[in-house]
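Researcher: Going back to the complex we discussed earlier. I've cleaned up the inputs and rechecked each line, so this should be the final set. Can you rerun the prediction on the complete assembly and write out the structure?
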Amino acid sequence: MMNRQLICFFLAVMAYLPASFAVKPDSVYIFAYGTEKSNYHTGLHFAWSIDRKTWNAIGPEHSYLKCDYGRWGSQKKMYAPFLFQDPKGKWHCVWGLNETDGAMGYASSDDLVYWGRQSYPLLVTGDQVLRPEIRLSGSGAAGGGAAGSGMKVIWASASGNVFESYTPDLRQYASPERIRNFTSARETVRVSGEEQTGTVHRVPRSLLEDLLDARKIAEAKSARNNERLAMNKEVFKEPVSVTIRTDKNNQKAISDMLIGIFFEDINYAADGGLYAELVQNRDFEYALSDKEGNDKSWNSYKSWAAGSHDVSFTIDSLRPVHPNNRHYARLQVKKQGGGLVNEGFDGITLREGEKYDFSVFARSPEAKRGGLKIRLTGTSGEVYGEAVTGKLSRNWQKITAVITAATTVNGARLEVVPLQTGIVELDMISLFPQKTFKGRKNGLRADLAQSIADLKPRFVRFPGGCVAHGDGIGNMYRWENTIGPPEARKPMRNLWGYHQTGGLGYFEYFQFCEDIGAVPVPVVAAGVPCQNSAHHGCALGGQQGGIPMEHMDEYVQSVLNLIEYANGDARSEWGSKRAAAGHPEPFGLKYLGVGNEDLITDIFEERFMLIFNAVKEKYPEITVIGTVGPFNEGTDYVEGWKLAGKAKIPVVDEHYYQTPGWFLNNQDFYDMYDRSGSKVYLGEYAAHIPGRHNNIETALSEALHLVNVERNADVVTMTSYAPLLAKEGHTQWSPDLIYFNNSEVRPTVGYYVQKLFGENSGTVYVPSFLKGNHDRRKVAVSFVEDEDYLMIKLVNLLPVPVASAVDLSEMQITEGPALLSVLQGELDDRAAKPRESTLSVAKDLKYQLPAYSFSVIKIKKI
Ligand code: AHR
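Model: Rerun complete. Updated structure for the full complex:
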């Protein structure tokens, strides 16, 4: 009996001893490997062993490092990662990228958990890098080697050749030399019953524990992120109530620029959308390359047809209207009566009694001098309006006409009928409603533009998004190509898979900002293309190739020219172009974004800094906005913020599309931001749920986040939901804020959240205390003031009403009626709109927050 008691006592003591007294080895083995699973997308994994025989997978197959090379989906693969520790203890990982490129992937780490910037050195041309390995080279090995010096990379190619290349630092590489063979340092072990090939390393046990912890943290985060807002009402046994008290003594000034918009030509947002042009492929510049050859009908003929057998047409490019716009239609008219027909963007929508401006560049090479009949017709030949132009001449001439629509109709077509036989050449065939937004020529669709203006955005970001930096350097948005007469603009492939005329270009953008009282925030590429560009590395200017340094001066000058175009004197080189377009006064540009969620690499930093320094020197009054990658964590975020601190970038652009669970569980995200560092422009965000639609659940998640951002609007100075617009039937990204077709505009539930914030922005934030008998995360409040109003925003994420008692005794408010706006619905409600009413307000305000709701109370100040 005594013995049994002793044993129990001993076991109990053992259980309470600190872990370090337990019988665990000081060092263990880890095995680093990758698999072919998910087409090589799962990255670098670890397994561990104490005897080098039995291996335990971590995760299993938790990813510690993922490749960022090339496009999401088809690329970003990691073949055969190879892990190497240099004599100073730093870890280096190299891997193959694909079966075609002569580049490899490289990243390094101090702890195997946080991995720094990636690079993709081009080691060989005309061959591939498969299964790269690192070795200490002779000198480095002999000398003990400073970290990173005296190394070499050895690899095989698909054809079986073996190469090695010396490198002092795993950044620069000597020309590769062919070698006869090499002995691989990889081993094959069994992990979870499967054979895997990788590298084995003996490491302190604490390193393994850090790896295990990293995986546990990732799992815990993922569980929190997956939390949804749906709750069972039945769990609430008693009414939910809160008391709220303001803390006026601690009020602070906040940004007056908080709510803005993100405009990108995605989802047909510009051509076929906000840009009011009704003719599709007006310039005959549609090209197979717009869709990377995937749609054989997407060419200069797209949207056009001959209207009768007596007319045929071909596409020519011998004598273009302008070299930027080479293609035009060459009609052969055998008999008068038929012409060229355009189907518009899903048809043309006409409104009865409204006037439409038609224009075309036309010529009659045989000088037959007929005019043109312009008709708006239905598919069965109905004529909704027509006009006849003046006569054509031998040379290109712009010809115009005005047509009045006899009826309101969708699906009309435009016919251009030569009133002569023989050859007629036509280009830039255009039709605009005269009723554009503010009646601007070459203007914007009035109803869509108005829905944007109604958000009361303080700024407009343009032209993206990925469109700003393009799919490879040849596809970067070049602002100069989008100004001047439309026929001289340079159209291009839109990386979302269609054609971009540049008709809604930089002039129209600046003009729109002025028309809605918003500040322009243009974003230029930081000299590198989109992180989602096709691969091809440095050599071909694909992802992370970057503009060659010898061309960077030219590029930097182009960025400076943009500022001169916006703000320069009307007699300056670029200011005069603005004046020629009808705007001699400057547009008052104050902000310039440089880069868009780029991979933060050495190639990026080198180019970003050139642009940043040049702008700072020539235009110190311009606030440059840097970029910190596509996520709210990870390498680009960390490295981007490090660069922001080092270079003292005034503002950085954060992007994250997150789940309701993330917004719910990260309400303190900005509370811990350094107030003395760079400010934040939250340039792209939205709540995403499976199915990627917009509903009350996503809208309330966004409202919650904005309430938390308002509390931090001394550091987060600007925000913009993304993307803004999407045309039904042409959507590449969901959800979006405003959906539309040719005749209707359909704002989403999320739109109303943005609108309520836009209409109720303040310049002063008043902190408050909220107490209640509920899940504290699910009721949120924010008090902001401007000169005239106190605005209280209340978010209720509970399925039951919440009775609030708000102590306003320290606020200078007018007691009596106040404006109450409430957005409320079931979580999957996709059509809810705010309801407005009057609420009687006193210093001891009582207000019941409806279940699942966002309320705004706007109270006049004394
Ligand atoms: O908003 C849609 C896209 O999301 C943007 O173009 C890009 O910046 C981000 O990845």
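Model: Worth noting: Residues 264, 266, 464-466, 596-597, 630, 684, 722-723, 733 surround alpha-L-arabinofuranose (CB under 6 Å).
Researcher: Good, that matches what I expected from the previous run.
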